[in-house]
Specification:
Elements: E1 4-23, E2 29-49, E3 54-56, H1 69-84, E4 91-97, H2 108-124, H3 130-138, H4 144-149, E5 153-157, E6 161-164, E7 171-176, H5 183-187, H6 201-206, H7 217-223, H8 225-234, E8 241-242, E9 249-253, H9 256-265, E10 271-276
Parallel strand pairs: 3-4
Antiparallel strand pairs: 1-2, 2-4, 2-5, 5-6, 7-9, 7-10, 8-9
Length: 289
Amino acid sequence: MPTSLRNCPAPAKLNLFLHVVGRRPDGYHLLQTAFQLIDHGDLLHFSLRDDDHIVRTTELAGVPAESDLIVRAARLLQAAATAKFPGKAFGADIAIDKRLPMGGGLGGGSSDAATTLMALDHLWQTGLTRQELMDLGLQLGADVPFFIFGRNAFAEGIGERMQAIDTPPTWFVVIEPGVSVPTARIFSSPELTRDSKPVKITDFSRAIAGYGKNDLQVVACKLFPPIAEAIEWLGRYGDARMTGSGACVFCGFAQEGKADEALESVPAHWKAWKAKALARHPLADLQKS
């Protein structure tokens, strides 16, 4: 049985479109979106301990360990494992190479939590199914189940109802506009459109490139002008839009060379990078179906 897992990817996601179609009585917004995995993200490293301590060995500025989704995910799985195997100690040291920006709309924290659940489930030999891990992940955030799902997905509800989709080979240029967007601030805005007409997965599948829009983008651009500036600049090369609740902006290219041309021209005051579309999560094979 392995005692450690190194270099576990926590890939970013892009929302190819994001519509707000309603609101539940509890205040949660009802969404429709297409999640796209990309080959750029954080890396996590896990080592088993002989005790039941969960220790994040990496310092993250502004993120206390107790509130980090990585630690919370590990403890959630630890509780499930302890209930299943009473008397057995489940502990781990966890390190992270953080590459994704916070407040970027790329799902970084959610992806870190999902990778933690998948990796520790494997190391601790808990035997949970993919659906059981997704149910745990939903307790941490609406995007976490998607990363455990392991495929690009058309998602509805608060993001937890998913159908696998196939997306074309695409290279993305992503710009970080240099601002961090609090998700709650976007969703609480009175200017947010909350009544987009629901669509069907077949509507999206017939016209993936440039389909729909991001209903959160208008609000985010008004509150954070650098997002609008990045969209305007990247829009010279194609259909540029914001992912999630922001702040990152992306544009897809069918040819890698075209993506390289755009990337080389990005103004120096923005951080930008290129990523390739993934068809599956790199850790998908760790999970039981």
